[in-house]
Write a structure and sequence with these properties.
The structure holds two protein chains of two kinds. Chain A is about 50% helix and about 15% strand. By secondary structure, chain A is α+β, with helices and mostly antiparallel strands. Chain A folds into three domains: about 80 residues, Orthogonal Bundle (Butyryl-Coa Dehydrogenase, subunit A, domain 1); about 110 residues, Butyryl-CoA Dehydrogenase, subunit A, domain 2 (Beta Barrel); about 130 residues, Butyryl-CoA Dehydrogenase, subunit A, domain 3 (Up-down Bundle), CATH 1.20.140. In chain A, a hairpin with an 8-residue loop joins strand 6 and strand 7. In chain A, helix 1 runs parallel beside helix 3, helix 3 packs parallel to helix 7 and helix 7 runs antiparallel to helix 8. The longest helix of chain A has about 30 residues. Chain A is globular and about 75 Å long. Chain B has a domain of about 150 residues: Butyryl-CoA Dehydrogenase, subunit A, domain 3. Classes of the chains: A alpha+beta, B alpha+beta. Chains A and B meet through helix 1, helix 7, helix 8, helix 9 and helix 11 of A and helix 7, strand 9, helix 8, helix 9 and helix 11 of B.
């Protein structure tokens, strides 16, 4: 066991820190449009110096960063409080999925504009009747000359209104059952047959969208991994989803907790043993998450891919993030619930944490079945 | 960055798991627990001493194995896993404290007997010279009492100590109440008591992790076998989700405990935070996971016949020994405030 970073990893961190220091984009501008444009500009700055896709191989515009370096990358972004690149779904999910399942032509066509944020990506998986049970999806793709016509509805689609390409899973064999008969497509969002409607959340803002597809066109060359092989391709995307963001999320959580701790200390609240204990409990949870994530990284390096244990850290993260904003409201009083306080937003936004990217209930199922080997009830 | 054991460390774990499975199965634990005098298995103790376990983390110069706190933690996790009735934990914890906090002369005088297991030691917190519950307090030669940042070593043979065996809910280990009388012979440890106590906390946390792990293993096996409503009860989410929570707590506590043990050996600046993380997390995990084990065993889990109660009882007492988890949590918060005020660390380690 050696929990120190190698000289190479430390050099990577130092270089990145220095780069962020001189390129820090400052605070986000007001408004969703302006904020997204600001993130696109940020990604272009990253890309210009080879920092946008550090975990990608050099031939596709990456640095071939190790898993530890990728973790450091996400930690440093969160530590410096700079945003994720605008095309986060293309970088973390779409690109890596194409590198495994895409044809040479597809890699040639799609990868480079992901890195430069010329083409933004979104993910069309969930449907109104296929949430946790993704294999129940109904969106259907009908074969026509030269391509496919797709009809159905998708939901919880982040970035849909900015996106050029959608990673779409649809049922390409009529009446096929569950995981069979699905195909993974890249769908052009810029067509009249795709209608995007913002989905307003309990926070009042709209990070997500609904997609309405009415005979949307997808040419044959945009099938990824072969017709009927969509479930396997989708699993690659999902595995990257849980593994990729973990380190950034836990540092952002730590920054939020540090902020609460600072405010509480400035108000003299830590003189109270019980307040110190409750804040300390959250610091303990944060550290358990971080340490367990690094243990998982070691296991991933050993076995070549993230294991189901990744479900543990996502669960720890969402649980702790919710506790932080709840404790903030309790310690700071009713002012924390006014909309001019950031805690009011954090409190509401955190409710989504245990739902998005796999509900805690589904994660518990995964842990019970795949880690503990318990039988499943069917 | 490699957050896993080396081959040598794995070998220690494997050896300990196999030996304790053969020599300290639940039937042996039960035999000790049901004895009126609670006496340990002498032959097992001699065997553990011959393997060098009594002094595994003490320097070779005093007769120890010269391995680290991490190797000791691996061993104690296994002893917790087996709930082995033995003075290994109390002796090792006191040894770590004396090694860190004793002067050279004190270390030379005390540690050889501790490392060889011939003159064992134990440690407890005291208030006004009284420690209510000292593990192996009636058999140790040296009793280390920590009070208000000071640690004294009392010689149990020299008189002046009131040592009264005390039965607890945990019959798998012997305990005593110890009071320092006017005539007691004691010497004060001269160096860093806090760092010594933190190492002892890591040892305790390791045992708690082992208890939690065993409780989880027994429970998973049981809920796969036990059938109600025509199906193994482990298929019900009310059961499987609780088992998943047991894993979450167990693995979180292990992450913290291994980190703390590594810090004790390799990065002392992180030991205070690490020890507090470990004790806070392992106390919770130990108590919660063993309690969940009783619940998920249903009625059978509440019987004397089933073995899960040994784990629950040991975990309850372990969690109450040394500094309570609540104080560790408060300490973690205050360390975070202090760290925020200090210049940014270089991020040289996972710590």
């Amino acid at each position: 066991m050696d929990l120190t970073f190698s000289p190479q990893a430390t050099a990577f961190r130092d270089e990145l820190r220095a780069w962020i220091d001189t390129h820090h984009p400052g605070a986000a501008p007001e408004g969703e449009e302006a904020s997204f444009a600001w993130r696109v500009a940020w990604q272009r700055a990253l890309a210009a110096d080879g920092w946008a896709a550090v975990h990608w191989p050099p031939e596709h515009g990456g640095r071939g960063a190790t898993l530890v370096e990728s973790a450091i990358f996400n930690e440093e972004l969160a530590r410096a409080r700079v945003p994720q690149p605008a095309n986060v779904l293309g970088l973390l999910l779409g690109g890596p999925t194409l590198m495994v399942h895409g044809s040479e032509e597809q890699k040639e066509r799609f990868l480079s504009p992901i890195v430069t944020a010329e083409e933004i990506w979104c993910q069309g998986f969930s449907e109104p009747d296929a949430g946790s049970d993704l294999a129940a999806l109904k969106t259907r793709a009908v074969k026509v000359d030269g391509g496919w016509r797709v009809t159905g509805q998708k939901v919880w689609t982040s970035y849909a209104h900015h996106a050029k390409w959608c990673m779409l899973v649809a049922r390409s064999e009529p009446d096929s059952a569950r995981h069979k008969g699905l195909t993974y497509f890249l769908m052009d969002m810029e067509q009249a047959e795709v209608v995007v409607r913002p989905l307003r959340q309990i926070t009042g803002s709209a990070e997500f969208n609904e997609l309405f597809l009415e005979e949307a066109w997808i040419p044959d060359e945009n099938v990824v991994g072969g017709v009927g092989n969509g479930w396997r391709v989708a699993l690659t995307t999902l595995m990257n989803e849980r593994a990729g963001l973990a380190f950034g999320l836990q540092v952002a959580l730590r920054a939020l907790l540090d902020e609460l701790t600072e405010v509480a200390a400035a108000r003299g609240l830590l003189a109270s043993e019980s307040v110190a204990e409750r804040l300390g409990d959250l610091h303990v949870r944060c550290e358990l998450l971080r340490l367990t994530a690094y243990r998982g990284l070691t296991a991933t390096m050993k076995y070549g891919q993230p294991g189901p244990e990744g479900s543990l850290t996502k669960w720890m993260w969402s649980d702790t993030n919710q506790r932080v904003s709840e404790l903030a409201v309790e310690l700071l009083g009713p002012g924390a619930l006014a909309t001019d306080s950031r805690w009011s937003f954090e409190l509401l936004r955190a409710r989504g944490n245990s739902i998005e990217g796999g509900t805690t209930e589904i994660l518990k199922n995964i842990v019970a079945e795949r880690v503990l080997g318990l039988p499943r009830l069917r | 960055m490699h957050f896993d054991f080396t081959d040598d460390q794995r070998e220690i774990r494997r050896t300990a798991r196999e030996l304790l499975a053969a020599r300290s199965g639940f039937e042996r634990v039960r035999a000790v627990a049901e004895r009126d005098d609670g006496a340990y298995d002498e032959a097992l103790w001699r065997e553990l001493v011959e393997l060098g376990w009594a002094g595994i983390a003490l320097p070779e110069a005093v007769g120890g194995q010269g391995l680290g706190v991490l190797e000791l933690a691996i061993l104690l996790e296994e002893l917790g896993y087996a709930v082995t009735p033995s003075p290994i934990f109390s002796n090792a914890a006191a040894g770590l404290l004396i090694d860190a906090a004793g002067s050279d002369a004190q270390r030379e005088a005390l540690l050889p007997g501790i490392a060889s297991g011939e003159q064992t030691a134990t440690v407890a917190l005291a208030r006004d010279g009284v420690a209510e519950l000292v593990p192996d307090g009636d058999s140790a030669r040296w009793i280390v009492l920590v009070e208000e940042g000071r640690a004294i070593v009392c010689d149990a043979l020299a008189g002046g100590l009131e040592i009264a065996p005390r039965a607890t809910i945990d019959p798998t280990r012997r305990y005593a109440r110890v009071a320092v009388g006017p005539g007691a012979l004691s010497l004060e440890l001269e160096r860093d008591v806090a760092a010594g106590l933190d190492r002892a906390e890591v040892a305790l946390a390791a045992e708690l992790c082992g208890l939690a792990e065993r409780a989880l293993v027994l429970t998973v096996a049981y809920v796969k076998e036990r059938r109600q409503f025509g199906t193994p009860v482990g298929a019900f989410q009310a059961v499987s989700h609780r088992a998943a929570e047991m894993l979450l707590e167990t693995e979180g506590a292990r992450s913290a405990t291994w980190f703390a043990a590594w810090a004790a050996d390799a990065e002392p600046a992180s030991l205070a935070r690490g020890a507090s993380l470990a004790k806070a997390a392992a106390s919770d995990a130990g108590r919660h996971v063993t309690a969940a084990a009783i619940q998920l065993h249903g009625g059978i889990g509440f019987t004397w016949e089933a073995d899960v109660h040994w784990l629950y009882k040991r975990a309850q007492v372990d969690a109450a020994l040394l500094v309570p988890a609540a104080r560790h949590r408060a300490r973690v918060a205050r360390l975070a405030v202090a760290a925020a005020a200090a210049p940014a660390a270089a991020g040289a380690a996972v710590a």
